[in-house]
Specification:
Layout: H1 3-18, H2 37-53, H3 73-92, H4 124-139, H5 144-157, H6 171-183, H7 206-210, H8 215-225, H9 233-250, H10 255-259, H11 269-272, H12 277-285, H13 302-314, H14 319-327, H15 333-348, H16 355-360, H17 364-378
Helix pairs in contact: 2-17, 3-15, 3-17, 4-5, 4-17, 8-9, 9-15, 13-14, 13-15, 14-15
């Protein structure tokens, strides 16, 4: 990068920062700007986790942190969902767009891939997830127009992109954003059945975290969150179902409870508001539990993605084991990894997510900050 290009990037990041659309400073080096206390607290938390992993200190060392930093069960799970998504995204991008059997299975976050990213950098999945989280926090409500405006900011200006550029955007997402710019209607997602991709499912976790106290609201708003970019019924209902599943994981449901048909803690929600036929069939038949890897696809079709994530989650006993299973299906590996990471991160909690992967994620503190902010909003 030339000096002039570097200066342009610095000016761009400065502009995004002034709008609150960039990442809080995590170091005083270079900029001389003070690091916010909440960022320092998260850095201390991650530092203690690393020290525990190395055997330098014990769990009791967490008591030295401020009360709000020491994770309650819900904060542990909310952090897990967001940082889990980033880890899955960063791990999977190395083999994104590859065919099964055509690559050496990944075992660590190494970067590279079609966008030649550095180890720990993530893609459009997490950029859009952070846009959604930011909207829910700044509006303190569910606002489709604000959400799609932030997606435009990411697409056009690099808001919440790890490189300050939109280097990866799905065809369906771009079509929807272009449609919004022409019509002003935030419900711009194409509705035809062939547009039922996984691009709304990949960003979903902030919604059930925000509505963690109400299952029906979590499900309903999860479905609505799809409308900005994916209006096909399979995409909407995949978000509704997965939003409910994430809600259960965030609230401590067991794996048996989550995977016993269609998760419904109310006992009546899905009877009154049934999902589309393809999703209902997938969940009621539960054949994903007994399939082999060569019978599962990690493609961009939302039903394939959902099945792959449920297959990996049901056939593993740790965050790491399941993530490696689903990512190594290839194809849309960053997105299946991101979606699995949301579910497994919420289920196992941040403390069970490998700290060596947390440490590699670029701007990792942002995912912790948003988890806390979303939970704070849920209490208002």
């Amino acid at each position: 990068m030339s000096i002039s290009e570097m200066q342009k990037k610095i000016m761009k990041i400065s502009g995004l920062s002034k709008q609150g659309l960039w990442f809080p400073h995590s170091s005083e080096k270079m900029t001389g700007i003070d690091v916010a206390q909440e960022v320092k607290d998260i850095q201390s938390f991650i530092g203690i986790r690393k020290a525990i992993e190395k055997g330098v200190v014990g769990e009791e060392y967490f008591s030295k942190l401020a009360d709000k930093v020491i994770d309650s069960d819900k904060l542990n799970r909310a952090r897990g969902a967001l940082i889990g998504a980033a880890i899955g995204d960063a791990l999977g991008t190395t083999i994104e767009f590859t065919q099964p059997g055509s690559f050496t299975p990944v075992t660590d976050i190494t970067g590279g891939g079609p966008f030649n990213l550095k180890a720990g950098e993530w893609t459009d999945d997490c950029s859009m997830m952070l846009c959604l989280a930011h909207s829910l926090v700044r509006r303190k409500s569910f606002d489709l127009k604000d959400q799609i405006e932030l997606y435009i900011k990411w697409w056009k200006d690099g808001a919440f992109s790890v490189t300050a550029e939109c280097f990866d955007i799905g065809v369906t997402v771009q079509s929807a954003l272009e449609n919004y710019l022409s019509t002003g209607n935030p419900e711009s997602g194409p509705t035809d059945e062939y547009s039922a991709g996984n691009g709304s499912l990949m960003r979903l976790a902030p919604v059930p975290i925000r509505y963690i106290s109400d299952f029906a609201e979590a499900v309903e708003y999860s479905g609505k969150s799809s409308l900005t970019t994916h209006g096909a019924i399979e995409a909407i209902d995949a978000c509704r179902y997965f939003g409910g599943l994430l809600w259960g994981a965030l609230n401590g449901a067991s794996k048996d409870e989550l995977l016993n048909g269609i998760y419904d803690p109310t006992g009546t929600y899905w009877t009154k508001n049934p999902p589309c036929t393809s999703i209902k069939k997938l969940l009621e038949e539960k054949s994903y539990k007994t399939k082999n890897s060569n019978e599962v696809r990690g493609s961009g079709y939302v039903i394939h993605t959902l099945e792959a994530v449920l297959w990996a989650f049901s056939n593993s006993s740790s965050f790491e084991e399941g993530l490696l299973k689903v990512v190594n299906l290839g194809e849309d590996a960053d997105t299946t990894g991101c979606i699995y990471g949301q579910l497994a991160g919420a289920f196992y909690g941040e403390r069970k997510v490998p700290i060596r992967w947390v440490d590699k994620v670029k701007f990792n503190h942002m995912f912790y900050l948003k988890a806390q902010e979303l939970l704070d909003c849920s209490e208002t």
